[in-house]
Write a structure and sequence with these properties.
This protein is mainly alpha-helical. It contains 20 helices and 5 strands.
Length: 507
Amino acid sequence: VSYSALARRVATIVDLVGIMQVLTWDARTQMPPGGAWGRSHQMASLTSVARDMLLDATTARLLDAADSDTATLPEDRIERQTIAQLRDAIALHRRIPAELLTRRSELAAATHDLWVEARKNSDFSSLAGNLEQTFDLARELADAIGYETTPYDALLGLYEPGSTSAGLDAIFGELCAGLLPLLADIAEKPAPRTDFLRRKFPIERQREMVRRIGVVLGYDLTRGRIDDVIHPFEVAFDRDDVRVTASYDENWLMPALTSSVHENGHAIYEQHVDPSLKRTIMVADLGLLYGTGGPSYGMHESQSRLFENHVGRSRSFWQAHYAIVCDLFAEQLADVDADTFWRGFSAVMPGLTHFGADEVTHDLQVLVRVDLERAVIERRLAVRDLPEAWNARMKDLLGVTVPNDTQGVLQDVHWPTGQIGTFANYAVGSVMAAQVFTAASADPAVSAGCAVGDYTALRGWLGDKLYRHGRRYSRREALRRATGKTDDTAPYIAYLNEKYRDLYAIG
Ligand code: ZN
């Protein structure tokens, strides 16, 4: 009885989070610019209502009553997991003063506007003062949360609970050792044809392509929808209303293809959460007040990367489904067969951005950002020296010369909006994607399906081992349950080497 009273209270808070997701989706897809002021106040009000509900005496009373009534249950029962996660979320809110969050969101709004201008003019110095305040505030936030060795761990932990800088050092060390020699070998070889990706592809037809590919992957459009945006994202209001977005470039086919497959991966995760977890803490991060059916950002990213790379960039996918693209763009692709398309689509092209980077250079792009933000947080690097450090790292790791700050240190929205500590999850996601896909492929039904472009068995496997649990298990525990192992970069490095040594005919 006491537990169901607590569950009802949690359901109301989860509903508030769902409403915030609707408002966020609207703000990023439909809202006219004039709506920004009102929307930011609406979001702030909902945030404080949700936070107050979490921290008030009623919740505390219900929590204690439910805790003592369920104390004899095993710890892996959903009641016990719910109580433990709710206590963690409340403890996090207690450590972070509301006043700090208000200052943080005000600074983020002001700095975002400055960033837009600075980016237009490639003028880092006009942003530097605000960015310095942003990093100061991130340190203040880290101090409020608490940490053992470095404030960066506190920030990482917000998005990737349990992850540490030391753990990241190990992962990135192994990735560099595995990827840099491969990248050097690829650079020696002739590049595959990619010219055909830069022809004129009418956007109306690209939209249809994105829809058809979503259907092939298993994105359920009776419980989803696709809208146009500049910067694509996925958002779940609930497991039965999971929306994705795609971005289009009329003269370049890559953005629509990669972003839609990526966001479909996120959406398929959400659509497979067990229906019994609707309106529970297992589909919302009540610490960050964000709706998600995955235990961490990195775990969620692992599934978008799994679909983007292991499915969408696979030879078997294009052998089976190239007809979708050919039907819509028969003229543009008249001189291109499925294998040529796959090679071009997979081509390794060290570039300036993280968004849209190929598989081999993607995590090196991430490393540049993680290294620099951590160095600033730990006061080993001054904000004013970021442009120079950025350009040096890009040259060093990727061999590219950054022509200006707009295409360099000013390109990402993360730092200006205070999202410091989130980049790492992209690389953690790549590593886990390979672990999970390798484990899934050991099932003969999964590998037979993937070989002919049928992902029913793959979705079944992922749903059963991972997605249906929502946030019940920590990232590490969820990974262990799905693959039998904890973090392991070996499957990822092996996968990239096998694919690209073959594609580039490296002996
Ligand atoms: Zn993603």
